[in-house]
Give the backbone structure.
Amino acid sequence: MDLIKSEVPCPVCGSEHKKPFLEPWENVTDPKALYGAASGIRGTQKIVGCIDCDMIYESPRYPEKVILEGYMSSEEGGHDSQYHMRVRSFYKALEKNKKYLPPKGAKVLDIGTAGGGFLDAATKFGYDAHGLEPSAYLVESGKKRGLQIEQGTIDNNNLVPESYDMITMWDVIEHVVDPKAALEEIHKLLKPDGVLLINYPDIGTWQAKLAGKRFWWILSVHLHHFTPKSIKDICQRAGFQTFRFKAYWQTLEFGYLESVAAHLGVPLAKFIYNLTPGFIRRIPLPYYASQTTALARKVKNV
């Protein structure tokens, strides 16, 4: 396997002009360690900013094959342990945005659906929900739950063009090797005036600006870092018009959030986790961590 990193152009505008944003301080080369877990590893990437459009992304970077093999090796038991909490959060998000979304009965596709939490919520909401997921482990988990989920990616599938009323990407676009090409493929799959939902870690929030180069979403699994400006830009280039941005709150168990903080090296997080009683670890905790939900509509051919 080729483990040589190569320079890549801006994923939004294609420019080769970039400036340093963050230098790596860890040397990790194992694709499964870098890409096989939702939480990823801090400090393994060189992050740059596009001089022409301000997009922030990883460059140089491993080849697509290396990254995809890492994703496909994922066995995210920890992530999937919060399945019911995630279903609750997704359902609340659908309720909050329902006047902007297709009506009940619509056919929906979720890209990178993990264990199918969104599919579960969308089905309860009244949608005909389908999912694509690269991880064989998570696909099997979803199928055991009776969900319509298949292994694949947006550029490797047998989906029918113009057959979906809405396509969603929940915390996925930052993982995709070529996000503009992915959005162009999504454009083909959506019906005319179909809706695109993108939930993403927003490096443009005040929390992200305050954290600076220590922003918690700068992880090995995240190849790109979007703001509302860059989401608008990439959507427009792929044939979409954005029409809504909304802060995304979700609910997860307190102990799970503690364990994530410990994994990311937050000071004293592991110590506090070890002192936390089990019943407190299981308490659902609503939180906001600089994630944003963007809605866009298919408006033209590309």
